[in-house]
Amino acid sequence: MTDWPDLSALELLVAVADHGSLSAGARAVGTAQPNASRSLARLERRLGLGLLQRSTRGSTLTPAGLMVVEWARQVLTAATELREGASTLRDEGTARLTVAASQTIAEHLLPGWLSHLRETEPSVSVVAHVENTQQVVDDVRRGRADVGFVEGPQAPSGLHHATVATDELVLVVAPDHPWARRRKPVGPDELAATPLVSREAGSGTRIALAAALAPRELAPPELEFASNAAVRVSCEGGYAPAVLSRLAVADALASRALREVPLAGVSLHRRLRAVWGGPRRLRGPAASLVAIARA
User: Fold this and answer.
1) Where in the chain is the domain with CATH 3.40.190.290?
2) Where does the HTH lysR-type domain start and stop, copy by copy (predicted)?
């Protein structure tokens, strides 16, 4: 029998990445820190990899741990789809809404919107997919999602759209990075020429940064990840500067785990949009969710 990794341990590992420490990750999944530490130690033995760098100041993810986190997200997404698909089969008479959202929106805004929707329309069964902006647009165009939420600087062609919020990208570095102490703002030429810890091609963050610095070409990334959390943790570790949504780094800036670097000559504000196909006027649960997001 295959020795599969424990899903709860994978969930804990992802929570450590998302919340910045073992103790915060343990709180997020509702387990005591000693139990969390033992669970991750078992996962390390099972995988044969060191996932955490342990020290008197706490535990941080190793480079291998950062990679495993990205694969763990895929496993957990598939497990969630299995559970929700089975639930849908049980409740065929229940109204169903399939939502696709880019990561920044899915991590920081969508949970609140869905909670409100559950309060107002408790009979609606929601399936949510977390992807990058290009994948969300593709899902909506192909009818795999009833409504999508994206971060790109421009509305995608061929789809209806509505602005639901605004966002700002910020340049951040680790506290010991030379830019943490500089007073002169970073200009567009310098930013474009600097290798960053970056989101993957097709993400709303990467698309927005490239559009803001056009016609300059972005330097190849120092490191590239498919999640905001992995980019943030790598930046905190001092690998390179990063450009992320203020929503994604607010806690790290407040705790001084990251420092914001001033910018000049470049605007990194963007709109967050709902997108959908079919008739221009949304109806049913999709319309309710977009109205909640806009409110």
Assistant:
1) 95-295
2) 5-62
| Mean pLDDT along residues 64-71 | 87
Q: What is the pTM of this model?
A: 0.69
Q: Does 90 have pLDDT greater than 70?
A: no
CATH entry, 7-72, from 3.40.1190.10, 2.30.30.40, 1.10.10.10, 3.30.10.20: 1.10.10.10
CATH number attached to the domain at 95-295: 3.40.190.290
Report the alpha-carbon distance of residue 33 to residue 43 in Å, rounded.
15
Sign of the CA dihedral with 229 first, then 230, 235, and 237 last? positive
Backbone angles phi, psi at 273, to 5 degrees: -125, 145
Say how far apart CA 269 and CA 138 lie, in whole Å. 24
Task: State phi, psi for 8 to the nearest 5 degrees.
Answer: -65, -35
- Residues 112-126 have a mean pLDDT of 91
* Residue spans in the chain of domains classed CATH 1.10.10.10: 7-72
The label of the residue with tokens 């450009």 reads: 243
